[in-house]
Structure formats: structure tokens, C-alpha cells
Amino acid sequence: MKKVKRSSRLVEMTQYLLQRPHVLIPLTTFAERYNSAKSSISEDLTIIKEVFQDEGLGELQTLAGAAGGVKYIPKSPKAASLDMMGRICAQLQEPERILPGGYLYMSDLLGQPSIVDEIGKMFASAFAGVELDCVMTVETKGIPIAYATAGYLNLPVVIVRRDNKVTEGSAVSINYVSGSTKRIQTMSLARRALKEESNVLIIDDFMKAGGTIAGMVDLLREFKATVKGVGVFVESDEDVTDHLVEEYVSLAVLTGVDTRNRHIIVRPGNYFEGVEKEQ
């Protein structure tokens, strides 16, 4: 490849890194790609690293040695994320979102790529230091969030089905008790969808008592997999004395729904505890 101007090289390198989160890229890759000395590439990476930090885009980790290189870790500053979540909570408090059973209508928000992308980056920031093999969710509304999270973590997505589909081959199915309705339901996962002994991050859009997530945890035991983290977009603490899931990261909390007066209270979740908003 012919030599390019430094300004062009910086733009291309930045784009290259943004498209490959959590991938270790040897310096020789850039040196050969741009026909430049490693010393020049190192200087460029220092500039990019400073910009990423200043703009809150994430971290650029450099590993020394023959097997070293550079790795981009997407992260959002919690204060900036809190501002974004405050705006999302304001939308979630719109009276027309109230559904029977104390649930919220969220499909329109989860259909907006910009919002889903921000949610995914928040979860990716929360679990950036965890060793993971995949992101798991149950159909259907949690799927967009799971894909957004997996995109920033550079991981595959595993989808648990409510029933077994012929097109997915043999599957493992379990019965679980819904924490909110107390009904016995079924979920299944194709045997080929998940390798045994995988490290899994569970992502869900809404958690009331946590029965669905507890069911996924039980399902993962059949694959000898380890749950390394649980992320919930909105949790409900209304009329829930005991969550079936003890450790989880929530981005928003539904604290009250007054169906008679059409009043909803939603606040930022436990991920933001102790964080002050940016001015």
C-alpha cells in the first residue's frame, strides 16, 4: 500500500479500531497497512488514545512485547450515560405507556437504533472487564439490546426461545416459574447455539421478580455454562419483596405505577449509584 498522509492515516486507524472492539491488533498490521514505521504508528495511537479519553469514547490499551499490540475497549463515562438515561426515564414516565400488570410499553424506544446503541454501550461498559464468550437473551424484546451490547463487546448472541423450532435442530428445554405471574412456562435453547462451559452475559429488557432470568440461569446449567453477569434495562421494585436474581446491573428502575391517576415513576438503576450528572 502506498504511503498516506498522517491526517488520513489517523482517520483510517480510528475507524479500523472502532470497528474491531476488544480485538488485539498488532502494530505490524498498521505498519504494513500504511507503509509506515512502528514508531510513527505508536505516535498516532497515542493521539487516538488521548482523543478517545477526552471524548469519552473508551480506552485504547497497549500491550508491549512481540505478541503485543493495541486493543480498543468501548466505554461510556457514567456521568454522561446518566444524563442519557435521565432522558430515557423521562420518556418511560409518559402516562400512555402503562400496560396491565404494571408493565411499561417500551417497544418504540427499543426500535430506535440510537437509543438501543446507547443502552448497549452502557452494558458493554459495565461488563468490559469480564471474560465472556457470548451474550444471551430470551425472545423477543431483549434481542435488540443484546445485539447492541454484543456489538460493543465483539461477541456472538445466543437467543433462548419460548418454544423449540424445528429449524434449530435438537434443543434443551426446561420449565420455569414466571416470577410475576407464577405460571409455569417453557424455554428452550438449541444444542448447537452454545458451547459447553461458556462464560455468558445475560441481557433482558424488563425484570419484575426475575423468573425469566432465573429460568435462563437454570437452562445454562444444562450446558455447564457460567453466568458471568446479568444486565437489565428496566427493573421493577413495585410490590416485589424478593427478586429471584440477586446480582444484576440495572439501567432504570420502575418504582411506582398509579393506574388510576396514570402516573409512572422511573429513575436510573443501580449502575448509576453514587454517580453525579455532568453539568
TrEMBL record:
SUPFAM superfamilies: PRTase-like (SSF53271), Winged helix' DNA-binding domain (SSF46785)
Biological process terms in GO annotation: negative regulation of DNA-templated transcription; negative regulation of purine nucleobase metabolic process
A Pfam entry, by short name: PuR_N
Segments forming domain Phosphoribosyltransferase: 109-236
Keyword annotations of the record: DNA-binding, Transcription, Transcription regulation
Ranges where the Bacterial purine repressor N-terminal domain occurs: 5-74
Molecular function per GO: DNA binding
Family matches, as InterPro entries: PRTase-like, PRTase_dom, Pur/Pyrimidine_PRTase, PuR_N, PurR_Bsub, WH-like_DNA-bd_sf, WH_DNA-bd_sf
Subunit structure: Homodimer.
Family: Belongs to the purine/pyrimidine phosphoribosyltransferase family. PurR subfamily.
Protein known as: Pur operon repressor
Gene: purR
